[in-house]
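Posting for a labmate who doesn't have an account.
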Amino acid sequence: MTTYRLRTPVEATLQDQAFWLQDTHSSAPSFEPLTERITADVAIVGGGLTGLWTAIRLRQTHPELSVVVLEASTCGSGASGRNGGQVHSWFERLDQLSAVVGDEEALRLARASAEAIGELRQLQEDRELDLGLRLDGWVWTASSRAQEGAWDEALARGAEVGEDSYSRLSASDLAARVGPSASYVGVVEERGGSLHPGRMMRSLARWADRLGVVIHEHTPVRSITDGARARLVTDRATVDADRVLVATNIWASSIPELRKRMFVVDSEVVATAPIPDRLDALGWRGGEAICDAQQQVLYYQRTSDGRVVFGRGSGRTLFRDRVTAAFNRRPEGAPLAVAELARVYPQLADAPIEYSWTGGIDCVPSHIPQIGRLRGARSVFYAYGWNGTALAQIPACSRIIAAMLAGDDDEWGRSRLIDQPDPATLPPEPIRWIGANVVRWAVVRKNRAEIRNRRPGWFVRALIRFMPSTSEH
C-alpha cells in the first residue's frame, strides 16, 4: 500500500485574507473540526470550488453515497476565495481543449461551461446561492499593439463550429461600457460577467451542507494511505473511505506524481476603497469583468459597492512549490498592482487602497485541468491545474469528477479529461526554479517594452518561447 504525505496549507490571518473573505467574514458558516474516526463512501480533501462542487454533484446524482469534505482551514480560504471573480466560458480556449480531448469533446466542454454560467444565474435567481453575480459581460482587451488580435483564434474557432461567443469592441464601445482607459480595442462575451467569490464560497458551503455533505473545517489531512479502502489521517481522527479526491489546488504538489506535472505561480490583487461616484463619472457603472491580453495578465472589476478590484499575474514561482505565510500577502507586490491600475485608469491614480492579497494558481503546461486516478492507486483520485480559469469551468467539470468517483459509464464518466495520456512534465529542481526565473525576467522586460509599443530584443523573445502562459482570473 502506498502512503501519500500532504503538506499542511498555511492559514492566512484575517488581515491577509482577500477582500472577498474579509467582507463576508461575519456571515461565514462554521463547521467543526473532525475529532472522531468516521467512514464515508467518498472523502474529499479540500473545501474550495473543486471539492464543494464535486460533493454537491455526488449528492445530486448519487444521494445514496456518503460524502465528507475535509478542509485544512475554512471553506474557500485558498484560491477559490482569493481570485478576481471573473466569469466566462471556455470558448476562449477551444484550441487548447481540442489539443487535449479532440474537437468534438472540446466543443461539448465549452458549451458545458457556458451552460454552467446559466446554472449560476438560475441558482442565484432561485436564492439557492448568493453569488453577487452580475452578467454584464466579460471584456477581453488590448492596451498595446502587441496585444491586438489575441482573441482572433478564439473567434475563428468559434465561427467554425457555429458559436459566435464574442462581439468586437472599438475604443468608443469600451469607453461607454467601462470608462476611458488604456485598453482601446477588444471583444466581449456578453453571457459572462463578475461575481463575489466570498459570497459564492460561503453560500456554496451552506448548500453542500443542506444536501447532506459532511464538512469538517480546520482539519488538515496529514496522509492518505491507498488500499481497497483508503485511510486519511488528520490531527485528531481518521477517515476510512472507498474513494478519495485530492482537490487542494496548489497544495496538490505535495504528491510527487502531480508536482512534476504542475507549477505554482502567484497573482497580486488590490481593492480600492468604495469610490462609486468617481466610477460613475468615468461611465463605469456595470459589473463587467475585464482583462487584458498580456502574458502577465491584468484583470479587474467594479464591485457592487463601487470598489475596483484589480489584479495582475506576477509569474513568480516557488522553489519546490514551498508555500509560506508570505504567499498570502506580499507587501512589495501591491505597489506593482497599484502602478498598473494607475496606468490603465490614470483618473484613479490617487484612489485609496484598502486591501491587498496574493493568490496561488495551480498551472499545467497544457492549460487544461488534469483529472484522474493516481498511478497504481486503487482509491485515490485528483483534480487540479485550473490555470486561474475556474468559476464556470469547475461547475461544468465537477460533473466529470463526480462521475469518475462514482464509476458512472456516461458522457461525463467517459470524458477524455480523465487520465489524460502522457501529460507534459516539468524539469526537476533546481532546474525548474532557475529556468522559471530566467523566463520571468524576460517576460517582465517584454511586457515593459510592449506596453510602450516597442519590440522586445531578440534574446528576450527567444526566452519567452519557454514560458507556459497562465490566465489568472
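Reply:
Got it, the C-alpha cells are right above this. The mean pLDDT is 94.
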